[in-house]
Design goal:
The chain is α/β, with parallel strands linked by helices and about 250 residues long. It contains 10 helices and 10 strands.
């Protein structure tokens, strides 16, 4: 394996994971394990508040490594486990999409909570280009069925401006400004009440699949815990004293 995943601590509360497997940053079997090991390692630190994922060079990620696909085909279940692992990360994940985001790499970006793009980013739903399918669940939920089909059924590249117009990304930045924008987003998230942020992520992820009654029940359970937290008490005290609260994730 020639590639790796660089772990860059931005601060005590923010870590950046950088996929480095030139030229297109594919995630074959070994690279997927490297990525998940890095996730496990950084998430084990209770101080972590936000994670940033990006790629090195001209690609964010190109999905599975097709050079290593055997006669029985791709390890689709293995790639799926990576996607589920990233999506289940305790803290919010910001994708800084620096370049090509293709196939499974596009799906990797969809599993992040927030996506920012470089002006050089390109998004490709490549399933129909390689006799497979991908992103047919997450993408329609994110941008709507009609727009999703235009990406899914053509397999054409879509630029960053189109991705922003579709609601796929929430900001487009010059290449040399992308990482700074992602860090600024992560810093803002990291200053919010950690238990509240984590609960908000959990409930927002589940919201599209819930009835109003189910949502109310889950919301009430989460809120019951948050109301008893030291962080909520610290926020109330800080509000009364007109100062910024200090959160401890407790």
């Amino acid at each position: 394996m020639s590639g790796t995943v660089h772990v860059h601590p931005i601060s005590r509360t923010i870590v950046l994971l950088e996929i480095d497997n030139p030229p297109m940053n594919p995630l074959g079997v070994e690279m997927r394990q490297t990525f998940m090991d890095a996730l496990d390692r950084v998430e084990a630190d209770d101080a972590l508040r936000c994670l940033i994922v990006t790629g090195r060079g001209r690609a964010f990620c190109s999905g599975d490594d097709l050079k290593n696909v055997g006669p029985k085909g791709e390890d689709l279940a293995g790639f799926g486990r990576l996607l589920e692992r990233l999506e289940a990360t305790r803290v919010p994940v910001v994708a800084a999409v620096n370049g090509w985001s293709v196939g499974g790499g596009f799906e990797l970006a969809l599993c992040c909570d927030i996506r920012l793009a470089s002006t050089e980013a390109k998004f490709v739903c490549a399933g129909v280009n390689v006799g497979l399918m991908a992103s047919t669940y997450r993408l329609p939920r994110l941008i709507g069925v009609s727009r999703a089909k235009s990406m899914l059924l053509t397999g054409l590249p879509h630029d960053a401006e189109t991705a922003e117009r579709y609601g796929l990304v929430t900001g487009v930045h010059q290449p040399d400004e992308l990482r700074g924008a992602a860090v600024a987003m992560a810093e803002r998230i990291a200053t919010r009440a950690p238990l509240s942020v984590e609960a908000t992520k959990r409930t927002a992820n589940r919201a599209p699949d819930l009835s109003p009654e189910e949502a109310d029940r889950i919301w009430a359970e989460e809120l019951r815990v948050l109301r008893r937290s030291n962080d909520h008490k610290a926020a109330v005290a800080a509000f009364r004293e007109r100062r910024e609260p200090v959160f401890t994730r407790s």
